[in-house]
Amino acid sequence: MSEPLVLGIETSCDETGIGIVRGRTLLSNTIASSMDEHARYGGVVPEVAARAHLEELQPSIEAALAESGVALEDLDAVAVTSGPGLAGALMVGIGAAKALAVSLGKPLYAVNHLVGHIAADLLTGDEIVLPTVALLVSGGHTSLLLVRDLTTDVELLGETVDDAAGEAFDKVARLLGLPYPGGPEIDRAAATGDPNAIRFPRGLSRASDLDKHRYDFSFSGLKTAVARWTEQHDGELPVADVAASFREAVVDVLVTKALAACADYGVPRLLLGGGVIANKRLRDVALERGAAAGVTVRIPPLSLCTDNGAMIAGLAAELIASGRRPSTLEFGADSTLPVTEIQVAETVAVP
Amino acid sequence: MILGIDTSVGTSVAVVDADGVVRADESSDNPLGHAEVIGTLIARALETAAVTPALGVTALSDDTEISYVAAGMGPGPFTGLRVGIAAARAFALGRGIPVVPVVSHDAVALGRLLQAAMVVEEDVRFAVVTDARRREFAYTVYDGMDADGLPVRATEPALIPRDDLDARLAELGALRLDAHAVPAALIGLAASRALAAGRSIGPSDALYLRSPDVTLPAGPKKVSA
Ligand SMILES: [Zn+2]
Q: Is the ipTM of this complex over 0.90?
């Protein structure tokens, strides 16, 4: 069979993503973001996100079809994120994907959002070498994974026990009186700051934590430390130094733990994904320290790092190529879907 | 034929033909689980109605293909309501056919009026009432049926605190009709009558009747004493 033509629908957070791929070839990566609508609240509001998905879905699908020159009836399959993510937001995509699949009489693949982030790297055109460690960092998740096989064997090594890294950026930006989203604002403020001016804590990095939480992250203590520091500081707040030192603490702990996993598992490859990868300091430190440790660091283009539908379509295309059967129509949104469930509700084989 | 979808209460999917005959009616009363069941109910309704899975615009009177999708637009609890609207739009997009939006309470009202007509009951003003959560009801008041066979709204859908409903309905002189289901067959029938009359009877966006409830962040929280 020729390479499968798949349309992917992603609505797990605040981006309505529609992607169309043929095998590993990207044909469209259409994203409508409701980020601006969340700005006044200082963070993603689930109900606002879900309402935006309902409004954006149809125009986004139409835009993706127009861009790729694909007709719906030519599709081989429809794919959708079934989790993890915001339940109410996921349900909009699931309702649409099921109805579209039934309407077209095409198979449906329900897939894992986090594994989708890894599949995004396939669409860059370079061969991905497995196994690889993957660090996925966004406003919704901070996860460290070991990927042995994209369609059958993904292991969760660790994740955040409280805030996601992107959330920490948003909360600290607010503390410093900077707008939402916090990532780019902190970056801008940090440009002239000294990253070593203030020694903020690295979460779950003490020897006593490393036993149980070697690959886990925690950012809520860091956020509190920044709040306390700014409160107790007399005189004008050195915003640039606070921003740079905070960012350094986040980047340091992310890269240290990711490279520790590479060393522990003897896997000299690290793949980065998620919207926080937009942070240049994180990319630079990962590349620099990766090189020093003999670890090859791969960073897909930003449009494939943030949440998108192409990665969902791409993962489904891999599942199809590996002979996996479609999902049944009976699955729901699973806001805490474990990363080991790469595909959800696969049809039982008929003997 | 018309495919009707409503998820404003439970999940209901039906196929109605041009003569108003219900060809398939698949429903789940579960007030949750809309996303879980919607695909299966649509597939089953199409199968029962023996609809061919072909594409393209067809006439309403075509009895082998779906030519319109009627969508219940609410009011209803948001999370579930959106599933049906998203499904209706996506199904229509897949077939290249239009969506006909219907106020979900209109379907319940139409059912009540058709029943009343059969028992030659005199026209009484009544209110369709559904649960809106958070100690509120959603209600719409109706005054009989018009010449097109569609219910006449005396008031538009609105929310009211549960304790205030009866006084409000007494003031409006409306009988209370609590609805625990919105049948998609009646969504389809209302759409079919609207199409026959060349009228548009529902809003193009979901009837939330409530802003997303979020509180704007106050200044930074104090963390140290
Ligand atoms: Zn993500």
A: yes
